[in-house]
Design brief:
Blueprint: H1 2-11, H2 16-35, H3 39-44, H4 51-62, H5 68-83, H6 87-93
């Protein structure tokens, strides 16, 4: 899903803002669905370096003030740090 968000952000195709908003809403809903009971314990523990912890911490810190652009940039940096390539490069390499 993060890959789809990054690719949609980079593509700038017609209606990309609407797609990005929908994808981010879906991501947050999925995180809540599958990690609702873990959120408080994850956010109060020391950062363990896992992507899910980073995502939950970012959402907790920024959900009221972050723009779509800031959120996409943050997750693209996280993706590149994790995989050593941009989402576009990753998508091309996995074809």
């Amino acid at each position: 899903m993060l890959e789809d968000i990054c690719i949609e952000y980079l593509a700038h195709e017609k209606y990309h803002s609407a797609f990005l908003n929908a994808l981010l809403m879906q991501l947050w809903a999925m995180l809540l669905r599958y990690h609702e009971n873990d959120i408080e314990s994850i956010l109060t523990r020391a950062y363990d370096g896992s992507p899910i912890t980073e995502i939950l911490n970012y959402i907790s810190r920024s959900y009221q003030t972050a723009t779509l652009h800031e959120t996409a940039e943050h997750f693209m940096r996280m993706f590149k740090k994790t995989y050593g390539m941009t989402p576009g490069e990753y998508r091309k390499s996995s074809r």
